[in-house]
Amino acid sequence: MAAPVTNEWKWFSALALGVSLLKCLLINAYHSTDFEVHRNWLALTHSLPLSKWYFEDTSEWTLDYPPFFAWFEFGLSHLAACFDSEMLAVQNLNYASPATVLFQRLSVIVTDVVFIYAVKECCRGVWDEKRKDLLEQPSFILATLLLWNFGLLIVDHIHFQYNGLLFGILLLSIARHFQGRHLEGAFLFSILLNLKHIYLYITPAYGIFLLRCFCFTCSNADRSVQWRSFSVLRFTVLGLIVLSTFALSFGPFIALGQLPQVFSRLFPFKRGLCHAYWAPNIWALYNVADKALTVLGVKLKLLDITKIPKASMTGGLVQESQHSVLPSVTPLATLICTLLSILPALVHMWFRPNGARGFLRCLVMCALGSFIFGWHVHEKAILMAILPYSLLAVEQKEDAGIFFILTTTGHYSLFPLLFTAQELPVKILLMLSFTVFSFTSLKQLFRKGGRLLSTSEAVYLLGLVPLGLVCECVYPLTTWQKSFPFIPLLVTSVYCALGVIYAFIRLYILLFTFTDCGTEAKMKSQ
Amino acid sequence: MNDNDLNYWGLDYPPLTAYHSLLCAHVAKLIDPTWVELYASRGHESPSHKLFMRATVFIADLVIYIPAVLLYCFYLRDGSAKRRVAVALCILLYPGLILIDYGHFQYNSVSLGLALWAVVGLGLGQDLLGSVAFSLALNYKQMELYHSLPFFCYLLGKCVKQGLTGRGLFLLLKLSVTVLLTFALCWLPFLSDPGQVLQVLCRVFPVGRGLFEDKVANTWCSLNVLIKIRTILPSQIQLLCSFVLTLLAALPSSVKLLAKPTLWQLKLALVNSSLAFFLFSYHVHEKSILLPALPVCLLINDLPLMSIWFLLVSNFSMLPLFMKDGLLMPYVVTTLGFLFFSVYLLSALERTTVAELRLESYQRLTHACLPTLNLCSVVKWKFFLSLVGMAALSLASMLLDPPAALPDLFPVLISVFSFLHFLGLFVYFNLVQLTEPSGRKNQKKAN
């Protein structure tokens, strides 16, 4: 676009303003128990000294994020005092006055400014001079896919969480790596890890990438590592940055000797294999297979019905459940599966590094692999794969196709999070708008390369519509709703799990068949 | 009709509203019969029932208003596809209609949508369909009478143009028959008994209610601040005064439309006539500002800055009502959204030459005394000052308590502020309509 520099980003401001106004309209919508979680954390960081933060358990929602997030809540609590100081009393469980709701919601909307800034930095990297029409500009499509992301909107602004802030830091870190500012990227990621430790899922990608592409300064012609080019200086600086961040975060607790307690809060493995609402991962399929085989076994008199434990794997947060027919799954087993699933991607990045884009691809695969094989995965974790993958989706047709499948099934699997009647129109309309927009814009962007989706993929995705109708509208009106209330959740998880796993497999195929000569030139021009 | 308690929100809209309610009631009965018990369901507000009622508004919107807007914009000849989409978006984003229909809860989108269908029909040359649509609109809400004068003058003017002794007369006859038939169809159940007809008319036109109610941004209420005319003049004189002044105010634009029945003139006449009724008529509600607002939305592509200004003020004038309904957050969000998006998408602040703002008549007036006055920047400055004023008054109403001696301070300030703007814009739109030269080349499909 030949427009002057200041004019180029007017559309970006319009997008950002529009979505912020939409978020304001959602202030009084349904909020989940996560709202009370954060109110409790505001209260305990404000009222209690540091030494009690990880011991406090008046409320069932104990502090289970790393220290930097606790400090963040501490900072917020001072602003909260101006709105309604009653929310800062630890005993005021489930306190949700209008001022409290307003404050908490506004805090999410305001901290989203980090996300908006990060998106702008990412969009800078994909600006295509050759595209004249704004609606076909990859930057515009990426900005909309990220700023108006359906999953992020409903998880952050209805269900209530601070993912905008966290993903903002993640995307900013990625953008810095794209811009060649690796130390900043590493620093941002260390901060992120100390804000929410779920990002441990993608730490291998960061580790291998920084080691391979930053600490080893040169590669041979065939992109294998040049062992002699190891830069001790870079390695040391990197190590110092990471260690000092962790020291700042955990230091006070090490000094107080509370490290084991902090870790037990951060990694509560007593929770079950599956979250209350089954995430669409492989264990959902495993559970269903187990149940099906159990039923079959009982019918065929191969199993004794009295020996089967009353498994209720869909309810509750603090339950360890046993499988009846198939072997039970332990946390260690899931860890091994996860590592095995992401190992090929990491190895590929070591031997055939592809700069920042290869790193991003590896990151997405780590996120997705951990989602599919992890222990007690929330369905919200799919956003960790979807949001970074958006950057690759606007650059290549194959990625766009996989992205669309992953996003649509991932977003649909978030539907059970909002189960109230009032939110039904909102979630359906937003989901439809986002899906239609992403499909038409990506199709238009890559119209020269052929079809975006194959027929079977299109049929699978269209199948989500009758699934949604049945689960949301038809099933609640039948008599089975009272006796088997978990069936819609089960069916949703299983159906979406198929899509997610399919996307994962296709990503791997793409990784190993990818001829990446074109991107080398692009990478050099960064 | 007999064991009805007339004082509990009795039916005071024409028959079509009644039929619409009946339709919704049948659906409601299928879902949950307790919602529609005659006395037992009074004040019933369960979450699912609220969802159902809001859904009926949305469906009515989807079926009638939104297609009319889309058809109107699609039909706009000038501008690229993107421009048309931008205009459609801006019209649909108009906060006043959204907040009243979905917040306060009414079905204005049905009557306004039908009126818009009428405009589209007339614009496409389908006079009969247009008249049917407008008759239906009139039978849905009697407030559409505000729009009736322009439609009448346009169609009459068209008949006159086609020659009263030939095709014109034939057209006139066709139109009259169509309108009468539509009315007859709507009133069919009540026509069996003339007493019923009178009763419906009495309910629909409650002349016993008073010159104005609450604080509304029209002449009488604003005048009342200075002179208490409500108490000075007897009610018969008040009725007569408002009737005469309304007709006088609406006369120039109607006559001009009669002489030159084009679509552009029709749109301007709709604005002028409904604004005249709003300013001078009897027992006007603040919600009646939606009636001029709809035709102004249609002008948004040609006169972006002035239209956006009017729409913002019209929305602002209803702020006391929104505050009563607890709609502050939606008010702020939709108003800001509308302001920024319409100014950005329609480049309202860039298209500000004298010709584009149609300020030629003003320029002639000021040219004599202040030849170097840059009217365009004056207008822009007034717009910004007006925005600041609206923001300040909104914030004051929301955050401050009025002094004990003047409990109605903020509603009065808001209505007087809006009234002054409406008066100024009334003069402006009249000048634009009346000073249009007879042989002007029209941008839209002229009929």
UniProtKB/TrEMBL annotation, chain A:
Pathway of action: Protein modification; protein glycosylation
A UniProt-annotated Pfam family: Alg6_Alg8
InterPro entries for this protein: Glyco_trans_ALG6/ALG8 (IPR004856)
Top-rank taxon, per record: Eukaryota
Membrane topology qualifier: Multi-pass membrane protein
Entry protein name: Alpha-1,3-glucosyltransferase
Residue ranges of the TM segments: 139-155, 198-219, 231-255, 332-351, 358-377, 424-446, 458-478, 484-505
Subcellular location: Endoplasmic reticulum membrane
GO cellular component: a single term: endoplasmic reticulum membrane
Similarity comment: family membership: Belongs to the ALG6/ALG8 glucosyltransferase family.
Main EC class the enzyme belongs to: transferase
TrEMBL record, chain B:
Pathway: Protein modification; protein glycosylation
Transmembrane segments: 51-73, 85-102, 114-138, 168-190, 263-282, 289-311, 331-349, 383-400, 412-431
Reaction(s) the record says it catalyses: an alpha-D-Man-(1->2)-alpha-D-Man-(1->2)-alpha-D-Man-(1->3)-[alpha-D-Man-(1->2)-alpha-D-Man-(1->3)-[alpha-D-Man-(1->2)-alpha-D-Man-(1->6)]-alpha-D-Man-(1->6)]-beta-D-Man-(1->4)-beta-D-GlcNAc-(1->4)-alpha-D-GlcNAc-diphospho-di-trans,poly-cis-dolichol + a di-trans,poly-cis-dolichyl beta-D-glucosyl phosphate = an alpha-D-Glc-(1->3)-alpha-D-Man-(1->2)-alpha-D-Man-(1->2)-alpha-D-Man-(1->3)-[alpha-D-Man-(1->2)-alpha-D-Man-(1->3)-[alpha-D-Man-(1->2)-alpha-D-Man-(1->6)]-alpha-D-Man-(1->6)]-beta-D-Man-(1->4)-beta-D-GlcNAc-(1->4)-alpha-D-GlcNAc-diphospho-di-trans,poly-cis-dolichol + a di-trans,poly-cis-dolichyl phosphate + H(+)
Subcellular localization(s) per the UniProt record: Endoplasmic reticulum membrane
Family designation: Belongs to the ALG6/ALG8 glucosyltransferase family.
Cited function: Dolichyl pyrophosphate Man9GlcNAc2 alpha-1,3-glucosyltransferase that operates in the biosynthetic pathway of dolichol-linked oligosaccharides, the glycan precursors employed in protein asparagine (N)-glycosylation. The assembly of dolichol-linked oligosaccharides begins on the cytosolic side of the endoplasmic reticulum membrane and finishes in its lumen. The sequential addition of sugars to dolichol pyrophosphate produces dolichol-linked oligosaccharides containing fourteen sugars, including two GlcNAcs, nine mannoses and three glucoses.
Protein name, as recorded: Alpha-1,3-glucosyltransferase
Species in which this protein is naturally found: Chanos chanos
Gene label: alg6
